[in-house]
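Researcher: Next sequence.
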Amino acid sequence: MKLFSLWLALLTALVGYAQEDFPYQLSVQIEEKLETDTVPWKYQVAAWEYSYIGEYQKMLESWDAGTGGPATISSEEAAYFQAFRPVSALDYILGRAVNEQLIIINEAHHQPRHRVFTTQLLQGLYDHGFRFLGLEALAEEDTLLQERGYPIQSSGYYTKEPQFGNLIREAIRIGYTLFPYEAGPGLNGKEREIEQARNIQQILEENPGAKVLLHCGFAHVVEGDYPAWEKAMAGRLKEFTGIDPLTINQERLSERSRPELHNPYLNLVELTEPSVFVREDGAVFNGPEGKYEFDIRVGHPITTYVNGRPDWLLEGGKKRWLDIPVKEISLSFPVLVLAYRAEESEDAVPVDIVELKTAEEGKKLALYPGGYRLLLRNAAGEEQILTLEAP
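Model: Next structure:
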């Protein structure tokens, strides 16, 4: 609850943070800002900025520095959970989607892995008739997004993170119609949830029978009561439309920076893939017995690293690891390496970003096949352009 009480102030403050001469910062620049900043949400902002440049572990650590300790569960709650077994979340959700009109899945705004999972769902959901994708993070002002086919820096704040950009590219490529639904400024929490739901309701009324996927942040996915707002967006949408959405939470069972901070449920299982937890009678684990917030909790495995990068960057099988042509770099280190599709504009969201602290670090880029323009930039603002072909 404490974390969500900061969101309204954050929405206003983000405007100032977004007005950088260059939208991506090296770790040393993020750390310098942390040392001098005094706003209570500075660790959240730093976590987002680390996520943008692919510094995954630093992102987790910064987020944890600004949030509370681990959740706790009772022995009874642990025993209840252990009656469920993990099954493929991708298969389970796509199986349910056949009979659903409205699916709402959330993310933690600092967690690129959640966007990777939603991206994996897109083709299967499209095959089941889903044609609309609503993104809370999408800016209403970017009216040319669908025609352009890829996001640019002004498409949104969180959307400049590469995996969010890839989610948007893939959705447009598949054939989804994307739409923003964020509420206008100056609203309190309750009013914001209502306006978000009304904006989505309008899409549903203009497209009777349409199947819609919504990707939202944090507690907007709560379908049950949410005392701070009376009802969250998902609950309001159910109230306004009469459609019972399939609500999916990803952030409750995602890793934190170290095991003792993980949600206790996550420490009770060893996952090898994003998972939903199903009991022998078909019941799905969605939280403690008797408490209803959403329909499904997705558990994500603990990250392992390949080439200095999270293994899940290749989930879905469409990307591969590519070597950075380090010997061609003439700039002083550390440098950001930003991989842009060769055919996209200079203000596009990169497909991938890594930070190289030294020439020997060994990190690789996770890229789709095609031609790329690599922009290298160091702390002095010096830049170099290289090209790369991903087979």
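Model: The two ends are 47 Å apart (CA to CA). The chain is about 30% helix and 25% strand.
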